[in-house]
Specification:
elongated; Multidrug-efflux Transporter Regulator, Chain: A, Domain 2; 3% strand; mainly alpha
């Protein structure tokens, strides 16, 4: 059984130009070429084309597909596909961040508000100076501000990555339908308090238990009611879970 370029292209859902291109680059050659120049493809070529199209659908470059098929090594193909999957996951995460950024900008603009600046550009608490000073005093703001700006860029990035992971964990717990009193949520509330304690100028950092409780309860209220924090946590429900779990934790459950 043989198929011409047009017949095989129709069955495969591709164009004849694509088949001729695969032939030119050595990816898929016809089984024979007739005197009139017609290309004919047999069962082996069709089987190879099926593998090419499957790998192409993963986004794998044609040159890499050719190397895999020519190697005839299933283990090498698995390794390469896993590496390609990791690359796609990285690209997916990057696209997800861009989507979130666009959604945030649209939401803020629709409310007549300014989009939240990235902490790496704007600083750790620069945009919250009035609120921090009102609640905890100028000294508290200055201490945390100095702490942030004394960090190297690498240290700032590391801290930001840990903070993103901390917030992301609340979204994960919410997605798993775990309540604020669950062991997992309470363990993460403890980790969240440890994160507060890293920041100079906060009562948790100073070891001031009474004021630390008031601060955490105040932050929980902000998480629950402030739309900016809903954006930070990904959803209002994830922010509400964090708030409820923190309240339970500092009140001794």
């Amino acid at each position: 059984m043989e198929w011409t370029v047009s017949e095989l292209a129709d069955r495969a859902g591709i164009t004849g130009r694509t088949l001729r291109h695969y032939d030119r680059i050595g990816l898929l050659s016809p089984d024979r070429v007739a005197a009139n120049g017609y290309r004919y493809y047999g069962p082996l070529a069709v089987a190879r084309l099926q593998r090419i199209l499957l790998l192409r659908d993963t986004g794998m470059p044609l040159a890499e597909i050719a190397s895999l098929l020519d190697a005839e090594n299933s283990e090498a193909e698995i390794i390469s596909l896993r590496a390609h999957l990791a690359q796609l996951q990285t690209e997916k995460d990057a696209v997800a961040r861009r989507i979130a950024s666009v959604e945030h900008t649209i939401e803020m603009r629709a409310q007549g508000r300014e989009p939240r600046m990235d902490v790496m550009l704007q600083g750790f608490n620069d945009s919250y100076e009035d609120e921090v000073v009102q609640r905890w005093g100028q000294e508290a703001f200055d201490a945390s501000n100095r702490w942030w700006h004394d960090k190297s860029v690498r240290q700032q990035r590391e801290w930001k990555a840990r903070t993103d992971a901390l917030v992301g964990r609340w979204r994960e717990l919410h997605d798993r339908d775990l309540g604020p009193s669950s062991p997992e949520a309470q363990a993460h509330a403890a980790a969240h308090l440890d994160w507060f304690a890293e920041i100079p100028g906060t009562p948790t950092h100073a070891g001031d238990a009474e004021n630390a409780t008031a601060m955490v309860l105040g932050m929980a209220d902000q998480y629950e009611t402030n739309p900016d924090f809903h954006v930070t946590f990904g959803t209002a429900d994830a922010a509400a879970l964090a708030a409820a779990a923190l309240r339970l934790h500092v009140r001794g459950r």
